[in-house]
């Protein structure tokens, strides 16, 4: 039987928040975000993912305010082949509040500490300073964690996929699906990196406008503390900002 929360949220028009203005300040504080590349889409993830590498990397990044998740896309680099059946090996994409994007290969339990040093080291990767750098858009579609993410997130991910294909933007926009990001009631949740914008209550009808605003933001003179939210009506927050700062920025640009 379908979860009643799913039926109710779809009947009400996707998002179950009482007002879109409730969204601001709900993005978790983080200075780094790491997406471990999965071989399977989040629709197939178990409710709770068991991964020694993910747990060790999350623990090692906690003091640096880092978060670790899983992402899937047909276009992203698959994980390398392990040397044994017991070994976990990942490719990954890491983002920092400084705007750095770091592509990682061969991430295993044995090199977690070296990986953290690489991610958090200043100047470890080139900062994307021009509009040629790709956008990374992630949609939470972790169905077994919460059906609202699976159903509404799945519809939004497909809408993004169609819009990106229609505009011939596959070389500019990298679309991925993710595991649990927090905030089931804000489904569909959309994360836009490398600048780390978090959006909630997104519907397929919002996708075209969000894509427009995300592309426009690439050319902005960027200041994470003062740059206006790209889509204020759906903005949950931004990487590098705490709750109070997110709320203040949202209030300053509320229309």
UniProtKB/TrEMBL annotation:
InterPro entries: Aim32/Apd1-like, Thioredoxin-like_sf. PANTHER family: ACTIN PATCHES DISTAL PROTEIN 1. This is Sucrase/ferredoxin-like-domain-containing protein.
